Amino acid sequence: MITKILSGNSRLKTDQLFEQLTVQEQEALLGPGVTHVYKKGEMLFRDGGIPTGIYYIRSGVVKKFKTTAKGGEQIFYLCGEGELIGYHALLGEELYSDSAATIIDSQITFIPKDDFVKVLRSSATLSNALLKALGHEFSLFINSITNLRTKSVRERLAFNLLLLDMKFNSSKQSDIASDIQLSRTDLANLVGTAKETLVRQLQEFKREGIIDKTDKTIRIVDRKRIIKEANLLGLNQKKSRSNIP
Amino acid sequence: MITKILSGNSRLKTDQLFEQLTVQEQEALLGPGVTHVYKKGEMLFRDGGIPTGIYYIRSGVVKKFKTTAKGGEQIFYLCGEGELIGYHALLGEELYSDSAATIIDSQITFIPKDDFVKVLRSSATLSNALLKALGHEFSLFINSITNLRTKSVRERLAFNLLLLDMKFNSSKQSDIASDIQLSRTDLANLVGTAKETLVRQLQEFKREGIIDKTDKTIRIVDRKRIIKEANLLGLNQKKSRSNIP
DNA sequence: CGGACAATTGAAGCCGGTCAAAACTGGTGG
DNA sequence: CCACCAGTTTTGACCGGCTTCAATTGTCCG
């Protein structure tokens, strides 16, 4: 399980959807597309909106999230370079069930629905790649739900820091070097906790020498420890209240 | 959103995967299959196992869940009559990321991997039906995650009771008649809480006249109230601590 | 240099988890 | 038909992890 999640691949599996296509197919998709530069914080689409196409991230980072009526934001995925987004609603033939917005300045190509469908119809490769990607995403969601239900904030934070590090640190020079840029609020919404709780937990990790952090940067110092803290096996031995008087 | 989730269709969308296929395709799938009778509580497959085919539920109910190392069980979906299970891992080309077991005595057909793949290759319909189903499942997971993060046990319980009622009560005679059979433990694991907490919340609903229950049966008495309690809009007005002294 | 926003720290209290034990159920055999 | 056991449901008590509210510090820019 651990090996599965943290397997050495520099890129995670879901990222590979687009890469699996032939060059011809990639061009057929991107050809009709319109590339646009998004500033940090711009919305790509909104929960409840009508899907009119999909998006290809040439550079940048996009968060997928859902907003609650009270203004809260639940982030459940971060998309990076080379990933496609927005195809779920299109495939499911329904309205967007989530929103997407850039976290940093990004360059993104919009692929109109018709063009996407055309390639989809003519290419078994795309169809299969999508099935594979969606099948895989399923296991990610399972894990995500299980984590939310059974893990503490500390464990979830450690886990997310690991994922962020693996996904967004191309600088593979050293196990120890890794920087993560993400506002406290975003990180809290990704981990699924209040930002105050998040901050306190970060402090604690720093005090324990597991991470280092400046105002906007988090760096994993002790990789082994943070893997241990993430407790991927779920063996968490709750300090039992058994003082046996 | 509410209308979307609770739309009048007697069956929920995901159930319809198999139904979308032509009769020929259905037969091509089930033809080579082997039907087997499972007693309540039997496992179909286990987290970490190698997928060798998919399952079609002729009758009965199957829970999809994940076990934690400590023995806990996280249920995230209940499959009913006419549904397919186990295709995610096959499509994603990986090991099962979840387990499946019957909740009541069930009649289930096993479709070997090769036969499934054969039909998948030759039929654009199945391929498209799968894409649609998976795309839709995505939105269910989003909702599930959001619910876990932002809703109280009371709200989640109300929501799940509604879903159970809609999905497993073919007896459409009356809005009020509805029986749900599920052990307290299973229900707790479905809602995502401890069974003691669940029991207390059930008591409370009963005391408030929203539901009725005997030892193993739960019946929704006041449908409007329970919809309200589920708080599908997320407008939960937390009793603000503002006593303004 | 102030104004806005993000990050941090402090304090209080509730929700829900855990442990423990009682009440209830159904099934079994004497 | 009753006594008994095993499993499930229910009730009680406790308390700790998180959320929430509030206030302070830090930081980036115009």
Automatic annotation (TrEMBL), chains A, B:
GO molecular function, one term: DNA binding
HTH crp-type domain segment(s): 151-224
Highest rank taxon of the organism: Bacteria
Keyword line: DNA-binding, Kinase, Transcription, Transcription regulation, Transferase
Gene Ontology CC: one annotated term: cytosol
PANTHER family xref list: CRP FAMILY TRANSCRIPTIONAL REGULATORY PROTEIN, HTH-TYPE TRANSCRIPTIONAL REGULATOR ARCR
Protein name, entry field: cAMP-binding domain of CRP or a regulatory subunit of cAMP-dependent protein kinases
Source organism per UniProt: Ohtaekwangia koreensis
